[in-house]
Amino acid sequence: MNTDHLPILQVLLPLLGAVLCVLTRTPRAAWVVQLLTLLGSFAVALTLFLVMPPEGLGYALGGWAPPLGIHYALDPLNSAFLVLVSGCALAAAPAAGRLLTVEAMPAARIPLYYACLLLNLAGLLGILITGDIFNLFVFMEIASLSAYTLVALGRGRAAPLAAFRYLVAGTLGATFFLIGIAYLYAMTGTLNLADLAQRLPETTSRRTVIMAFAFITLGCATKFALFPLHAWLPAVYRQAPAACVAFLAATSSKVYIYVWLRIAYSVFGETMRSPWGLLPILGVAAIGALLFGSVLALRSRGLRELLAYSSIAQVGYIMLALSLGTPQGIAAGLLYMFHHALIKGTLFMAAAGFLQGAGGSGPRQLQGAAREMPWSFATIFLACLALFGFPLSSGFLSKWQLLRGLMEHGFWLGTAAAVTASLLGAAYCWKLLRCLLDQPPDNIAPRRDPPAATLLACWLLLLPSLAIGLFGARAFDWAQSAAAVLVSP
Amino acid sequence: MHALFAHLHYYAAVLIMLAGLYTVIAHGNLVRKLIGMSIFQSSVFILYISMGYRFGGSAPILQEGVSTYASPLPHVLILTAIVVGISTTALGLALLRLIHQAYGSVEESSIEASETHQ
Q1: What's the half-sphere exposure (Cβ side, CA atoms, 13 Å) at B92?
Q2: To bridge A383 with a disulfide, which of A346, A360, B28, B99 should be the other Cys (CB 3.0-4.6 Å)?
């Protein structure tokens, strides 16, 4: 099979699928189009992951050679993320049709909803695959604008408000990112990531390089909601339609963390380890995120609110690992990103199942649901074990490697914060499970497990994370080889 | 003194940038926030466009007797960013209409009051 043009197909397929969705007239036809598109883009991602030679794969758009033309660059790191993102989108797809009906989305809007979802996917995949920093910005905006629209399609009254605040924060972040690009371009005259990495050490003005890095970090941190830039996140995760919240929560913050990681380590490299370096500041912000997110998750009521605050804390773990700057830290962070994407996807999908089976995922609907909804309970139980890091789960593996990295580096404050946050994590998971096992409240309507498609979506996301936990050594080997793309061990 | 004039466009861009950012943060009216956001974006457009200018340079079209040209690349880049900016503003305005329908107001204080009232 000729695989030469697969890199461009990875982005083109969902873009074309989005256009086709707009052209379809019935919700059913649009659902079929999106499912086929997602199957196709997952197949492309998987093929790329499997056929890619270890030294990577390049694709010059329109035959224009880099650094002048736009160049797509694949390596062990981003090809794995392509599989993760397209896989999460595919896993959530079967459940989408019924979830949109439960949320009473008007039939005329449903094809447009699917189009937005595919545009979002195209943007995220484009961000991952491109080797050109301005192209990356454009894909970031495609992903962001479609994400704002998706959030605004939520059924709650506050959904447009959440989307608007997300839009303002996201645009400020993207514009900071654009300023960073301006500095880089002014100094080097190039936009190609690999070319930038070569030319940056030759520039004379270190202060400008540091400012560029600061702006890019600020922009990315707004996008992945690092404490204290997280204010937009809880409302977005509460208000987004149940059909897409699992996909959004699982993938979009991971992709923006990938952007930061790629630019920080491949492009800036040694610059950011300077005495001016921002890594210690990021470490402190990560500690803030850990503690703040965990405490608010413990205090929250309702499943989606809990998951939203827990996501803020998990970004803290990931950034704590990545801000160490050591190969061990980066490998642990990468592993954590995969673990968190899969587990949060599962849990948000389970929350969507509560909307179908119990009419919502508020404290009243959760209370005592274990008996009436045994499958949902089993899913949440296993996912919670992995979330707080029960031995043999993916969460245990990632937290263990993170703690190893922290102690190797001698960052004791970080170690203490990570341990405290893990205990708080166990506490909020325990609180959630106890609430589910409690006596049901009086005169509540009968509840039942959601349809098979929703449970299937949960398990499609949960099983890979269980596999990561069981084959921990191999997963960590992969993480180390991917980290070697960024820093030489 | 020369440095000040040579970098005048950068100072202008930073001033506009700060004005936009301040409007986003300080105002409780969501329309003003959106306007501030647009101003903030425009300042970055100016940063890019002025970056491509060369003293004594002419428009980047090949012609007899001209050897210095302005760099067209930042202009082309920012054309894309302007399109993105227009879409963002349009989407923001559409969202504001929905917010106004739901709450009857675009003032943050009265929206919050009606949220807690519920």
Answers
A1: 23
A2: A346
- Report domain extents, chain B: 2-54+66-117
A296-332 pLDDT per residue, tens: 999 988 899 999 999 999 999 999 999 888 888 899 9
Options 3.30.420.270, 1.10.287.3510, 1.10.357.10, 1.10.150.20; CATH for B2-54+66-117 is: 1.10.287.3510
- ipTM attached to this prediction: 0.92
A197 in contact with chain B, both atoms CB, cutoff 8 A: no
Q: What is the pLDDT of residues A89-108, one digit of tens each?
A: 999 998 888 888 888 888 88
Residue A137 with chain B: CB contacts under 8 Å = 81
Contacts of B111 in chain A (CB under 8 A): 161
CA-based nearest residue to A125, from A245, A11, A39: A11
